[in-house]
Amino acid sequence: MKTLKILATRIKEWQHRPKTQNHSKHKSNKRADTKER
């Protein structure tokens, strides 16, 4: 169920920023590690 919470946060972040910018941050973002898990 933790994944659901992370997904919700991801969607919220996506709405805040464009997908292209989010992609760039994904590589540098530490959250990317949690999303991959």
Describe the protein in words.
- The protein is an all-alpha fold and 37 residues long.
- The chain has one domain (2-36).
- The protein is built from three helices and no strands.
- The longest helix has 15 residues, at 2-16.
- It is flat, with a radius of gyration of 10 Å.
- Residues 17-29 have a biased composition (Basic residues).
- Residues 1-37 are annotated as: Disordered.
Shape label:
flat
N→C terminal distance: 13 Å
The biggest sheet amounts to:
none
What fraction of the residues are assigned to beta strands by DSSP?
under 5%
- Element string (H = helix, E = strand): HHH
Kindly list the characteristics that best describe this protein.
37 residues; mainly alpha; 3 helices; 0% strand
Task: Give the secondary structure arrangement, pairings included.
Elements: H1 2-16, H2 19-28, H3 31-36
Short characterization:
The protein is mostly helical. It is built from three helices and no strands.
